[in-house]
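Milestone M4 deliverable, item 7.
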Amino acid sequence: MVDEVTVLCVDDRGAAESTGDRLERMDDRFSVRTATSTSDALSVLDGSSVDCVVSAFELTDRDGLALLDAVRAEYPDLPFVLFAAEGSDRVASEAVARGATAYLPGRDDTEQYGVLAARIRSAVEQYRVVRQAAAQERVDSVVREVNQALVRADSRAAIERRVCELLSDAEPYTFAWVGRYDSASASIEPTNWAGGESSYLDDVTISADETATGQGPAGRAFRTGEIVVSQNVSEDPSFEPWREQALAHGFRAAAAVPLSYDGDWYGLLVVYADRPRVFDESERSLLAELGDDVAHAMQARDAEAALRRTSTRLESLFENSPDMINVHDGDGRIIDANPALCEALDYEKSELVGMAVWEVDPNIEPEAARRFWESLGNGDRHELETVFRRRDGSTVPVEVHIRRICIDGEEQFVVSSRDISGREARQQQLEARSAAIASATDGMAILDENDEYVFVNQAHAEVYGYDDPDAFVGESWRMCYAESEIDRFKREVFPELEARGEWLGGATGVRADGETFPQEVSLTRLDDGGLICVVRDVTERKEHRRKLELVQQRTRTLMTTQTVEDSAQVAVDTAQEVIEAEISGYHALSEDGQRLRLLTENGGMESAFETLPEYERDSEDPVASVIWEVFERSEPLCIEDTADHDRLAGHTPAGSAIVYPVADHGVFIVSAKAADAFDETDRTLLDILTSTFTVALQRVERESLLREREVELTRQNERLEEFASVVSHDLRNPLSVLEGSLELARDTGETGHLERAERALDRMDQLIEELLTLAREGESIDGMEPVDVDSVVADCWQNVATGTASLQTEATGRIYADESRFKQLLENLVRNSVEHASTSSRSQSVDGGGHGHSDDDEAGTDGEPVTIRIGPLPDGSGFYVEDDGSGVPPSEREAVFESGYSNSPDGTGFGLAIVGRIVDAHGWDVHISESDAGGARFEVTGVERPE
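Output delivered:
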């Protein structure tokens, strides 16, 4: 199916508007625009998006074929229907040859407009499918080329430039640029572009705020971080500041794509197309993925540049660090030493290089040291306290950090040392603080004035994914955050911390494996410049809030479902979404109350069970016995491990389950393959879901009953209208006859008038009898049982006044029916044939009542006697009743079963209506045709027979 369809109708103004109005009434998805000439039509196509052109043949300036040529020149695939009142076979052939989608004669009738609407829908749907496939392939091709270019680019500028070039060269894109946010001007400034003329960028201003120049795709994409498109520049009000310049450069649509990766912002990519409505949902999705790829490539190039800068900084740090640093090989020979170490030990660098480390540290035993160095893995770090010996023999206490590294395939050891002569008092203070917080459940740490960790409790290490708190000591707090978060701390948090001495708020931490997580952070500045940091992981809290919000959304959905199936599917799907219950389903109670049958499931049952489960009452299946116990006790059952359950162990693929009884409707089974899959929070959420689900089923049941009552009330009203019609109309004639006859009898004394009055009374009695039949019987039956058709036919023949009519039967056997109603059906059909099938009159009369007769003749006595035949249908699907009378004209066969229908002056119009009601009540069908003898043939089908 297609969504909204924009149709351009081209004709003189009145005809175009009339065609448009009729199309919009045909289908509310149609939105019609009109034009009166070829030039007007091309102007509309140039300025807006149109899905289909419908043109007359005669136009004010040129004909429809000329318009078709003009449209095909600019829009080769656009659906075009020539709806030509003045057309001909030649015009039709010419239109198809020139590429028209369809040709239709422009007849002014509803049926033809219905055909036109169907052709439009079909053509637009195919047009959109083809266009979407082409767009998919086109964007995929661009994405492949861009990704290849990203691999080769060596800088962010090169990436930006090449991406713009590739996009601007890809039809229907014509221009692309990349911009970055300029905080000084609060605007988005282009940095690279390609395609068309760059003068467009000279004429426009794009701000990042909420002003008019910030409401376009670029400004909104910057603020929201999501792709934003303008599908039609000429009509989009938010594009008003740049519309004139954009249209002058041939831009008809635009898309702004944020370039961000892992929370870091790298700019904005803006693409322009030469036609409107280019950026459908699939194209936007692909462009968003392209934006992610470009940002990732930029991040990689930035990381390479940062690595180079880091290398330079490390060299500078080595030379200028206040810490004593040396590098030695696996034999303990010093191969490099920084100035701080040379100065502290009073050696020249040339003297230290080549010395053994145990000449500097007298506590080192060479063989033990070599074994220890070999035990360290690459990147491993070790910390110890020892003393260094100066040139003059004196010693200084130091804290040593040693790390094993591999440079160009050679194992080396970097030793960073710090003089700790004056640290004893400070260490005592830190130890006292550490003792107070070491056992805290929240992550707690102390940092010194250099923002380096001096104490970390176990909880703090674990929240960041480390086993050992010592992994933090001596490191900066920056190890726990991404660059973007570090920048935020510097920009927002630290100023407030310095002003108030404390700060409390949220942040995003980074664990040892690179995973990010939400946290709550408390910072308190110490008098000595240090910092106390308390961290709490709030992942579970946020996840719980997310699940609760999802359950709330689904409960609102459950309040709008219309069927039991829809309600159950929402509940089952929600269980999987909220608590990952991969084997879940709803089993509804069968009508006989003996089975709990699977109504809907989440897809996991098909893979978990060889045969989808259905639970019989009193079954020997242990799983069924557990499920029925829950249903009958109306209490939920939680099974943490089915392997420990005395009846379920070994009989179910589920490892854990929660079974909820749903009032008198069925059971909701939520289960997972793993044991202990559901915690207390999961159970609480499921309790909420199941309660709402139960209410939803009760609501659906009530609404269903109301609908049934409404239908029944409608039927009752229809019957009342029928009765009112008879009372107000059909009984009026015999009443008038009765009154007139009695008056004449009084005036003349002739008894003939009394006979006429008696016949009027008989007629009234007949009408009332059949009216009561309709009222009492309705359309329902009490039950069906095997009935012998041949016996019932014999009884009916005795009950109906058949006069000189004769009966021929074929053995029909037994069928399922309500015998009383079936007998009434046959009596009415026989009576109809007897009273209306006189072979002498051939009057083609039929009476829905089947009881009419003339004032002077008894049934079947005014011509040749009628023959009635009853027997089974050849295919065994039912039976027939036919006669050799005058038959029923084809034009009247649809109407004979309507109440009150009769073409006989004596008919009541109810006899065959009663037949129709009885057939409907049995679930059968009845059809009228012509018998071989030319009379009426009634065939009743859909009849079931006992086996």
